[in-house]
Amino acid sequence: MISSSDTGSAMMTTAINWHGFVKDLRAHTQSAAALNSVLALIIVEVRQLGICNSLWGFDAGEFVVDDVKKRLGAMLKNVVTAERIAHARIAVIIRDIAIPELLSVSAQKIINGLSKPVVFRGEAIKVDVSLGIAIFPQHGVSAESLLCEAELALDSAVSRACSFHITDSPYADKYSALFRAHDNLQQAIANENLGLNYQPKFDLKTRLPVASEALMRWHLPDGGRVRPEEFIAVAEASGIIEQLTDWAINTALREIAELNDLNLKMGVAVNVSATSLYDPAFILTVESALAIWGVPPQLLTLEITETLLMQNPRLCFAHLSRLRDLGVKVSIDDFGTGFSSLSYFKTIPADEIKIDQSFVKSMEKNSDDEKIVESIIGLAHNFGHQVVAEGIESSETLHKLQAMGCDIGQGYFLAKPMAMDKYRHWLIAEYG
Ligand code: G
Ligand code: G
Ligand code: MN
Question: Is residue 64 part of a domain?
Answer without folding.
Answer: yes
